Amino acid sequence: MTLEDLQELSEKEQQRQSEKKHRILYCSAAGCVSCGSDKVSAALKAKIKEHALEKECEVIGTGCLGLCGEGPLVKVQSDNTLYQNVDVQAAEQIVESHIISNTKVAAHLSDMSAPFFASQTKIVLENCGEINSESIDEYIGVRGYEGLARAVNEMQPAEVTEEIRKSGLRGRGGAGYSTGLKWGIVSKAHGEQKYVVCNADEGDPGAFMDRSVLEGDPHRVLEGMAIAGYAVGATQGYVYCRAEYPLAIERLKLAIKQAEKMGLLGNRILESQFNFRIDIRIGAGAFVCGEETALLQSIEGKRGNPKPRPPYPSEKGLWGMPTLINNVETFANIAPIIRNGSDWFSKIGTEKSKGTKVFALAGNIKNTGLIEVPMGIPLRKIIFDIGGGTPDGTEFKAAQTGGPSGGCIPSDHLDLPVDYESLSKVGSIMGSGGLIVMDSTSKMVEVAKFFMQFCMDESCGKCIPCRVGTRHIYGLLDKISKKKATQDDMVLLEELCMMVKETSLCGLGQSAPNPVLSTLRFFRNEYEVLLQPVETYMGEPGVEVNFEK
Amino acid sequence: MAVKTLTINGEQYSAQEGESILSVARQHNIPIPTLCHLEGLSTVGACRLCVVQIEGIPKLLPACTTKVEEGMVIHTANEKLNKYRRMIVALLASEGNHVCAVCVANNHCELQDLAYEVGLVRVRYPYLFPKKTLDATHKDYVMDHNRCVLCTRCVRVCDEVEGAHVWDVAGRGINCEIITGLDYAWGNSQTCTECGKCVMVCPTGALFEKGVTVSEMEKKKGFLKYIITARQKKEWVSISND
């Protein structure tokens, strides 16, 4: 396999697809599967067979189509028509009316010109909902593996790293460290063996960006990892995926097998001297294993406990060797950057935050689903234009980003541009991309309590501030929510939050108090109305002691 | 190896490259409270008592795992650090079932000493009173989980010095517990060599010898230095148990 072979394959695949009159794509990502897209696809296939249309039509399972709240979704690619809430009956109608008699099924039609679709910029998700997520040919058909081919054949490893650095890409896992800089450190670190690790241990409640990318376009992540391996001098990669994503693991396994068979992974990739193998490691569901040092311990087969940094994994990581760890979404950005150049990428986004960001919209919002927007887009646009605002016209109250490590952003800050710096200025973080919208019915003390319970349950127990501190913060929040707390408890709560934040060992503990601190900052009155007046705290009222007896 | 100079609490000191801040502080009798750290075992940076403030670094860093660097300006104690240390000891006290008056390690307990050192007079957090068990199945020793502070010294000494790895940690968060083997009773352990190292490095009365009563369990930690110097330098040092 060479670059020319790849291009030939790509043309052949495009030719094959153009010969089809209709390509009917149904969403085969976990969201739609859970509401019955299997039955829909069976119905579509049966109808196509019944009318003997197999030659001119194909029915394909594709990645996330975005509008998860309205699933199952079906798309007719030839005329870019999207159907929502498709059941078996609707599926049959689509074939009989849309495919055969060319009349669209109005009852299930989704408006593709709505801001939900029109305001998005797709890089990471460009193939989700366009190609068969289980076919390497279709991936090659959309210039897949061209980036890898260009990197190994036409570029020096240092040039690849420089290209990524120039693009301004920052880690999409949450902290936003410069990807090119990290690659540079790993490539310069000394070690007999180097590793590339993909962090697919997505654990934030309400976040499903990485899952959707892995389920919809697994080859893109593998290609990104292979390019990274070439740039830093690694020959082994690991995808650390949580066990709760069985479909993603299945698709990854298939994708690795397909790529190895075609010489795109394994030894002498694309007839160069570059060897790179990828294996999957499955996590047992601990949230802390998304923290890089704990993740590496888990890959080594040990208990997933974080270790103090420095030394950073880029110097001493897996089995003491230099290790590059990036998030799924970061790797998914690599191939297009190499293919289209860093200038193309750095034109998108803001000065310090380049490119796009995938968000999982959830909570009290009309359009629940997966979106990709350019960095710097105002929060208002995400929530009200793309997300459609709160359902039933209730009043918007706050948006929560960054999951249990992030914070709440109130309505006063709705015009905030969504980039790394602006979000941290208001006490939240970009995080991996979970965005939970809350309306006036949400109680902020309960929100803080929910996230604190999550952190308490997910603490590994290694360091004292996180192990015991989160337990007491939870206890205090519980006391406040049950109206049993006093002003004294508020003092304790704030002290504990600062102490846990400043003294914990790893990112989980250091960021665990964020939901409490940010709700205290913007919604302090909601805490205070629940407090007991001090008098009753000092002693039971109405008890009189008669000393004369 | 290069020599580094650094400032601790306003005074200048020299240190070897690769040395930890804690090691330099100990050499010059600068007090930094520690719990999980024990000379001779690997450092884990878990108890967070030794966190220090380094100028130019926004985060507090543990003295035990942070290596010295040229020109570092370190503060080992200030109002905030003292407060946080007091809070950490208070959290430990609230977490287990620590009752000094009936404890075998009373007056010989590092948790007790720490409480004095950091000036803890009152625990403001509600005591959690966890339901913990006591394992007295071993013929010579007892493990009382009520008094365990999860410093993992026993885990490390058994793994790193004795080479048996009888102990490990199970569970998560507040429910963490030290276990024997794959959570067997200690007496049924096939790997325990009955050496008693774990008992001697335990900072509290969680691990103790059978037959001792209140205040009688004095730990002898000098053996660790004895073994490690013998292994590394092939020298036999006299044991002092301080």
Sum this structure up briefly.
The complex is a heterodimer of chains A (549) and B (242). With 549 residues, chain A is α/β, with parallel strands linked by helices.
Major beta sheet, strand line-up of chain A: 2-1-3-4-5
Looking at CATH, which topology of the largest domain in chain A would you report? Rossmann fold
In total, the number of domains of chain A comes to 4
- Note the gap between the termini of chain A: 103 Å
Low-confidence stretches of chain B: none
Nearest-angstrom radius of gyration of chain A? Answer: 25 Å
Helix percentage range of chain A: 40-55%
Percentage of residues in DSSP E strands of chain B: 15-25%
Trace the largest sheet of chain B across and list its strands: 2-1-5-3-4
**Overall body shape of chain A:** globular
Largest sheet of chain B: 5 strands, mixed
Shape of chain B: globular
User: Would you count the extended β strands of chain B for me?
Assistant: 10
- The structural domain count of chain B equals 2
Oligomer: heterodimer
Largest sheet of chain A at a glance? 5 strands, mixed
CATH architecture of the largest domain in chain B: 2-Layer Sandwich
Note poorly predicted spans of chain A.
537-549
What is the CATH first-level class name of the largest domain in chain B?
Alpha Beta
Count of individual beta strands of chain A? 14
Arithmetic mean pLDDT of chain B: 94
